[in-house]
Amino acid sequence: MTSTPPDDPAQRQAGELPTGRIARTARVGGLVAGQGLRWAGTRAANRVRSPERAAQASGERTMALADELVRQLGQMRGAAMKIGQILSMVELDGLPDDQQDELQRKLAALRDDVPPVPFAKLERLISRELGGPLARSFAEFDHEAFAAASIGQVHRARTLDGDDVVVKVQYPGVAEAVETDLRNATMLTPLVRRMAPGLDVGALFGELRERIGEELDYELEAQNQRRIERLVRDHPFIHVPRVHSDLSSRRVLVSEYVEGARFEEVRRADEATRDRYGEIVLRFFFGLLYRDRIALGDPHPGNYLLRPDGRVCFLDFGLLRSVDVVDLDGERAIARAVGARDADDLHAALIAAGYLRRAGADQDDRELLLAMLRAVTRWYAAPGEHRFSAEDVRAARREGAGPGEARDAIRGQMRRFTVPPHAVLVRRMHAVVAIVLGQLRAGADWGAIAAEYLHGAAPATALGEQEAAYLAHRAGGAPRS
């Protein structure tokens, strides 16, 4: 299995990880300054352009900014790359649909097409972490990266016992790089706001600061993965790889190798396959949240594999939050009010859950709040057959932004909103699942399926019946009818 990586100078350069504080700050500062000047030039020129040409020029500037973000942040990895990955799930301002789709593909490259770090740098780290040369722990080890991401990359290997495994290795120096990135993150605020004015940039950077330290600790991730693997062990359509704890450490995580089709291949599959896959994705994340009180913070589709036996394998458990029962009851109350189209109950539920301040509540436009929340949540809060489309993807990214003259009213109401700490990962999970279903063009009665987890409803599909039987067997009770 062992191989030597190609001697490609361009790849070596792309794989370099600048870790010095001055070097990383200079990259961010140069990106902000250069793009800021170009935006200023575009705004000045737009004053004498027609509205149509001005809109076109602004779109071209946004596209150029995305290209630069992909190039610069893709080389930096760490928290800087995380910003680009999150932007790949956000609706960007002022672009026609075809440009939106092209821009999302470019930003998604930060998630899916990360250049690997040369193996020689990683080998020293692995040997230090495991207390000896690779041959002491592995019979075979592939030097060529199997996958690469913002904080580490993955290699295939075989243990001395003959088990096929994947070895996730943290990039050398990435912890120091992340610390610098978090200090520099506010420098990117003007650029991010230009690209996505409706995005709460403060909440985005707050989530990064709070969670990325946990993601750097692979021992914590191994603990999270073991916890979830136990919860879904022998599940009829969900799989989580087993962790090899004896070969894992703070910066090396070894787990079972799983063969399967990646998300882009599933997107090209027939409708029945896409529908079933989408339902499994929803059931996995909603089940963990509303049944097991676990919110996963990184549910993007690069972390799923469709196994040959039909089960879907889920990967990457670095970002996780346990959610209190009271907070989940608040989410259920919001969904119930949206499904019932009850503006008064929704307003009360939003206040109780901490999304709206009690002070000044008489200023809230309750019908507008209902319209905004229905635009984002009705796909899971209300029953009814629905096949997702590209517009659903855009709606999930917009988080309720509206067209034309409605935007000022919506923005005024949005200024009254806050995001309670428990809800950052919950809202992100809901939005990303909707985006995944949209990219799959999947169809089902999503509200009826979600109601099993939100409200304890009876199984709505054959998969629901399989899961109910599995859970009853696991609990030692009789299957639910």
Please specify the SSE layout and strand pairing:
Blueprint: H1 9-15, H2 21-46, H3 51-76, H4 78-87, H5 97-112, H6 119-130, E1 138-141, E2 147-148, E3 152-159, E4 164-170, H7 174-184, H8 189-195, H9 201-215, H10 218-231, E5 238-239, E6 252-256, H11 263-267, H12 271-290, E7 294-296, E8 304-306, E9 312-314, E10 320-322, H13 325-340, H14 343-353, H15 366-381, E11 386-387, H16 390-398, H17 406-414, H18 423-440, E12 443-444, H19 446-454, H20 462-475
Parallel strand pairs: 5-9
Antiparallel strand pairs: 1-3, 2-3, 3-4, 4-6, 7-10, 8-9, 11-12
Helix pairs in contact: 2-3, 2-7, 3-4, 3-5, 4-5, 4-9, 12-18, 12-19, 13-14, 13-15, 14-15, 15-19, 16-18
Keywords: ATP-binding, Monooxygenase, Nucleotide-binding, Oxidoreductase, Transferase, Ubiquinone
Family: Belongs to the protein kinase superfamily. ADCK protein kinase family.
GO molecular function: ATP binding; monooxygenase activity; transferase activity
Q: Can you describe this structure?
A:
The protein has 481 residues and is α+β, with helices and mostly antiparallel strands. The protein has three domains: 9-112 and 180-213, no CATH class; 118-170 and 220-232 and 240-257, 2-Layer Sandwich (Phosphorylase Kinase, domain 1), CATH 3.30.200; 260-481, no CATH class. Helix content is 56%, strand content 9%. It contains 20 helices and twelve strands. It has helices at residues 9-15, 21-46, 51-76, 78-87, 97-112, 119-130, 174-184, 189-195, 201-215, 218-231, 263-267, 271-290, 325-340, 343-353, 366-381, 390-398, 406-414, 423-440, 446-454, 462-475, and strands spanning 138-141, 147-148, 152-159, 164-170, 238-239, 252-256, 294-296, 304-306, 312-314, 320-322, 386-387, 443-444. The longest helix has 26 residues, at 21-46. The chain starts with 8 loop residues before the first helix and ends in a 6-residue tail after the last helix.
